[in-house]
Amino acid sequence: MARIIVIITAFLWMSFFVWEYGVFHHPLVAFFPLYGLYPGVVSSDSPGYSPTTIQVWAVGAGIVFLSLAVTAMWLKSKVVAIAFMVLFLASAFAITIRISSVLHD
Length: 105
What we know:
Elements (H helix, E strand, L loop, with lengths): L1 H23 L26 H25 L2 H27 L1
Protein backbone atom coordinates (compact mmCIF):
# COMPACT_ATOMS: atom_id res chain seq x y z
CA MET A 1 0.00 0.00 0.00
CA ALA A 2 2.86 2.38 0.80
CA ARG A 3 4.39 2.02 -2.64
CA ILE A 4 1.04 2.67 -4.31
CA ILE A 5 0.59 5.95 -2.41
CA VAL A 6 4.06 7.18 -3.35
CA ILE A 7 3.76 6.01 -6.96
CA ILE A 8 0.38 7.71 -7.44
CA THR A 9 1.59 10.98 -5.91
CA ALA A 10 4.82 10.93 -7.93
CA PHE A 11 2.97 9.94 -11.11
CA LEU A 12 0.50 12.82 -10.78
CA TRP A 13 3.32 15.29 -10.17
CA MET A 14 5.38 13.92 -13.09
CA SER A 15 2.33 14.01 -15.37
CA PHE A 16 1.82 17.66 -14.51
CA PHE A 17 5.54 18.34 -14.98
CA VAL A 18 5.62 16.71 -18.44
CA TRP A 19 2.38 18.40 -19.51
CA GLU A 20 3.62 21.81 -18.40
CA TYR A 21 6.98 21.31 -20.10
CA GLY A 22 5.25 20.25 -23.31
CA VAL A 23 2.84 23.19 -23.33
CA PHE A 24 4.91 26.04 -21.88
CA HIS A 25 8.47 24.67 -22.38
CA HIS A 26 9.28 25.78 -18.83
CA PRO A 27 7.94 23.68 -15.94
CA LEU A 28 8.11 26.38 -13.26
CA VAL A 29 4.68 25.79 -11.72
CA ALA A 30 5.44 22.10 -11.14
CA PHE A 31 8.05 23.15 -8.58
CA PHE A 32 5.70 25.41 -6.58
CA PRO A 33 4.95 22.75 -3.93
CA LEU A 34 8.60 23.00 -2.89
CA TYR A 35 7.94 26.60 -1.84
CA GLY A 36 4.61 25.96 -0.11
CA LEU A 37 5.86 25.51 3.45
CA TYR A 38 8.27 28.48 3.28
CA PRO A 39 7.57 30.63 6.37
CA GLY A 40 8.62 33.94 4.82
CA VAL A 41 7.25 36.32 2.22
CA VAL A 42 6.79 34.83 -1.28
CA SER A 43 6.22 38.11 -3.12
CA SER A 44 9.40 39.69 -4.47
CA ASP A 45 8.09 43.23 -4.08
CA SER A 46 7.42 42.82 -0.35
CA PRO A 47 9.89 43.90 2.34
CA GLY A 48 11.71 40.97 3.88
CA TYR A 49 11.77 38.90 0.68
CA SER A 50 15.03 37.01 0.23
CA PRO A 51 15.51 35.09 -3.03
CA THR A 52 18.44 33.13 -1.63
CA THR A 53 16.52 32.01 1.45
CA ILE A 54 13.48 30.90 -0.53
CA GLN A 55 15.66 28.90 -2.95
CA VAL A 56 17.51 27.20 -0.08
CA TRP A 57 14.14 26.40 1.51
CA ALA A 58 12.92 24.86 -1.78
CA VAL A 59 16.03 22.67 -2.07
CA GLY A 60 15.58 21.56 1.54
CA ALA A 61 11.91 20.77 0.95
CA GLY A 62 12.86 18.80 -2.16
CA ILE A 63 15.35 16.76 -0.14
CA VAL A 64 12.75 16.08 2.55
CA PHE A 65 10.09 15.05 0.00
CA LEU A 66 12.56 12.84 -1.86
CA SER A 67 13.81 11.20 1.34
CA LEU A 68 10.24 10.52 2.49
CA ALA A 69 9.36 9.01 -0.89
CA VAL A 70 12.48 6.82 -1.00
CA THR A 71 12.03 5.72 2.61
CA ALA A 72 8.40 4.83 2.01
CA MET A 73 9.33 2.83 -1.08
CA TRP A 74 12.31 1.10 0.49
CA LEU A 75 10.85 0.26 3.91
CA LYS A 76 7.29 -0.15 2.58
CA SER A 77 6.12 2.07 5.44
CA LYS A 78 2.53 3.19 5.10
CA VAL A 79 3.02 5.90 7.76
CA VAL A 80 5.94 7.46 5.87
CA ALA A 81 4.04 7.24 2.58
CA ILE A 82 1.04 9.02 4.08
CA ALA A 83 3.35 11.64 5.61
CA PHE A 84 4.91 12.21 2.18
CA MET A 85 1.52 12.55 0.50
CA VAL A 86 0.04 14.80 3.20
CA LEU A 87 3.08 17.10 3.33
CA PHE A 88 3.27 17.34 -0.45
CA LEU A 89 -0.45 18.08 -0.82
CA ALA A 90 -0.43 20.52 2.11
CA SER A 91 2.51 22.33 0.57
CA ALA A 92 0.80 22.50 -2.83
CA PHE A 93 -2.40 23.76 -1.22
CA ALA A 94 -0.52 26.34 0.89
CA ILE A 95 1.37 27.80 -2.07
CA THR A 96 -1.83 27.97 -4.10
CA ILE A 97 -3.52 30.00 -1.35
CA ARG A 98 -0.47 32.22 -0.84
CA ILE A 99 -0.07 33.00 -4.54
CA SER A 100 -3.77 33.63 -5.04
CA SER A 101 -3.75 36.03 -2.07
CA VAL A 102 -0.74 37.87 -3.52
CA LEU A 103 -2.42 38.09 -6.93
CA HIS A 104 -5.65 39.27 -5.31
CA ASP A 105 -3.95 42.29 -3.67
